[in-house]
Write a structure and sequence with these properties.
The protein is mostly helical. Helices cover about 25% and strands about 5% of the residues. It has helices at about 50-60, 65-75; strands at about 35, 40.
């Protein structure tokens, strides 16, 4: 599993909140705060492809070139959230 969000692939060390939150308020060790809050996914309706597109859009909005954003998100379908 490593230290990356198992929904979007962001390193949890880069998460300003240190990770998402479980329903009981504890810190999630699997998901970041951009994907998972209070025990539920922020975008429960997303498919892995939709998450990739969303992440590319967010990275590009922060100034990352499109090709680099794509490289950073290409592993999303292999993350735990999407492996079901």
């Amino acid at each position: 599993m490593g230290n990356t969000c198992q929904s979007c692939g962001m390193p949890l060390a880069k998460d300003p909140q240190g990770g998402g939150s479980e329903a009981d308020g504890s810190l999630s060790i699997q998901y970041c705060s951009l994907c998972y809050l209070e025990g539920t996914f922020v975008h429960p309706e997303f498919s892995a492809t939709q998450m990739q597109d969303h992440c590319v859009d967010q990275l590009r909005a922060k100034g990352m070139p499109g090709f680099m954003a794509w490289l950073f998100t290409r592993g999303i379908p292999r993350l735990e959230r999407w492996s079901h």
